[in-house]
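User: Design a sequence. Structure:
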């Protein structure tokens, strides 16, 4: 029994020794493997570091420097849209006049007085006779009404009479033709003048008169290189030339005064029998200005006068047609579209037939003017751009814009925001889409329908410390710039944490962290670092 026990103990001890040996062997093998892997990692890191250093050293030629300085940092809203002619005018012929032939093509350039369409002169003279008969009938109706008594012309508004044209005995119609009004009232209490240069809104000003006296003045607006100055209308008169001065006596410019908010007092017919107001007098809506003989201030009379004025306008147009032999261009410009007819018609008779048919179709009746063509003055164009809900509140009428039209070259053009549509487009999208209109001077080769890229300066930070935007490195919580460079390794060094403000593609505002003149280092083309990803993947 004892012998058996000893044999079992020996066997158990032998087994335990074998197990311990196996564990020791596995441990040694594992340690060897870990040591080899560690050595390979260290060698790989050293190799990678050498390759990175070599890359940075090779990129050293692309390192740029910039000394932090003070300047402006502007942000912009950009967009694109199609050019449209702003100052176009639709040219028509009075009802009853028939076209013989349209003499110009679309897109043709024309000069003032150039014949655009020939007309049937028989229809012109016939229509002239009819219009003259209608004017005579209106005159008889007016005479019947004016025989009933006198009429009084009141001021209609509160203000100060600054121009008084009509005098007792004057013919109202003649006075209107000569002066455009019987009198002019300054409604808001100001006269104005415009001088070159921009002046701050809070600048204290005075104006000097010819007699050496001075009056206080203030800036109304300052935009696009000129300033409008306001002076009380109590002491000065329109067309009086004054000189704008600073409080220190510096002369800023001279110009004649004009009524800032003029209200023209008008009449139509009759004779002035009495003038009830004097020059520079303060008046109120019910103040009597003139008493007229042979006039009637009734709804019927006013309606007749309006109808007669429309007939006079038509008469003048017919006389112009008769004198020129057809429809002539009222100004230099470009033909944008032709309503009907063609300069290439086979014969005048065919053109006349087509024109007459088109006229009846367009007008719908013989009592409406006939549309002929649309003519642009070639002075102004507009571009409408879409604006996101993030930018629309930052836009304002009067802001400057820069435009480019790639189809005609690389030049840039100056424009101004002239309209803002703050009602979102009904496009069914979740985000609001708004619009803004930019107006610019029309340049040679510009055509309606061309695409223009627009950049509107919406905010501007002046005289701030700035560095190139490419030199600013951003993390999720901070920003930093490098203020040193190691030529041996090609590495940027000495990072400095900065607080940044406004930014655009060129410059970033530095609010804290740098001083003026501190040099920052950065790589000329950051996209080069994209190739480093490939190095890490090797």
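Assistant: Done.
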């Amino acid at each position: 029994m004892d012998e058996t026990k000893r044999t079992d103990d020996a066997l158990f001890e032998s087994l335990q020794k074998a197990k311990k040996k196996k564990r020791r062997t596995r441990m040694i093998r594992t340690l060897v493997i870990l040591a080899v892997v560690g050595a390979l990692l260290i060698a790989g890191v050293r190799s990678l570091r050498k390759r990175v250093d070599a890359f940075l050293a090779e990129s050293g030629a692309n390192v740029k420097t910039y000394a932090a300085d003070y300047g402006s940092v502007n942000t912009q809203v950009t967009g694109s849209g199609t050019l449209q002619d702003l100052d176009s005018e639709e040219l028509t012929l009075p009802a009853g006049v028939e076209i013989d032939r349209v003499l110009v093509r679309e897109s043709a350039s024309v000069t003032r007085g150039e014949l655009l369409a020939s007309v049937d002169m028989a229809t012109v003279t016939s229509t002239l006779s009819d219009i003259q008969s209608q004017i005579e009938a209106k005159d008889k109706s007016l005479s019947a009404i004016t025989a009933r008594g006198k009429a009084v012309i009141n001021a209609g508004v509160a203000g100060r009479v600054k121009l008084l044209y009509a005098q007792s005995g004057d013919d109202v119609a003649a006075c209107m033709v000569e002066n455009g009004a019987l009198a002019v009232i300054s409604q808001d209490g100001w006269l104005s003048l415009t001088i070159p240069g921009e002046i701050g809104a809070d600048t204290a000003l005075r104006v000097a008169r010819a007699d050496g006296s001075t009056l206080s003045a203030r800036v109304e607006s300052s935009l696009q290189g000129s300033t409008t100055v306001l002076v009380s209308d109590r002491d000065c008169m329109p067309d009086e030339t004054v000189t704008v001065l600073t409080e220190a006596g510096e002369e800023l410019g001279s110009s004649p005064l004009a009524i800032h908010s003029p209200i023209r007092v008008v009449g139509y017919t009759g004779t002035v029998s009495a003038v009830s107001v004097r020059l520079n007098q303060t008046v109120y809506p019910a103040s009597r200005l003139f008493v007229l003989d042979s006039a009637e201030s009734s709804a019927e009379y006013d309606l007749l006068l309006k109808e007669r004025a429309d007939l006079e306008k038509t008469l003048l147009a017919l006389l112009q047609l008769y004198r020129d032999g057809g429809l002539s261009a009222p100004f230099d410009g470009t033909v944008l579209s032709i309503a009907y007819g063609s300069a290439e018609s086979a014969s005048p008779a065919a053109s006349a037939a087509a024109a007459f048919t088109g006229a009846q179709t367009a007008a719908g009746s013989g009592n409406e003017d006939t549309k002929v063509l649309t003519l642009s003055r070639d002075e102004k164009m507009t571009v409408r751009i879409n604006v996101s809900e993030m930018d629309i509140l930052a836009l304002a009428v009067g802001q400057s814009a820069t435009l480019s039209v790639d189809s005609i070259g690389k030049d840039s053009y100056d424009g101004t925001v002239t309209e803002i549509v703050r009602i979102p487009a009904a496009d069914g999208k979740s985000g609001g889409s708004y619009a803004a209109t930019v107006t610019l001077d029309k340049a040679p080769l510009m055509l309606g329908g061309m695409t223009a890229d627009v950049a509107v300066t919406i905010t501007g930070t002046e005289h701030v410390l700035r560095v190139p935007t490419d030199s600013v490195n951003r993390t999720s919580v901070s920003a930093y710039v490098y203020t040193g460079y190691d030529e041996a390794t090609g590495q940027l060094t000495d990072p400095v944490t900065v607080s940044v403000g406004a930014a655009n593609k060129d410059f970033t505002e530095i609010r804290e962290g740098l001083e003026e003149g501190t040099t920052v280092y950065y790589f000329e083309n950051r996209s080069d670092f994209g190739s480093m990803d490939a190095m890490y993947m090797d």
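Confidence is low (pLDDT under 50) at residues 342-365, 526-538. Helices lie at 2-58, 121-146, 172-179, 299-324, 348-363, 530-537.
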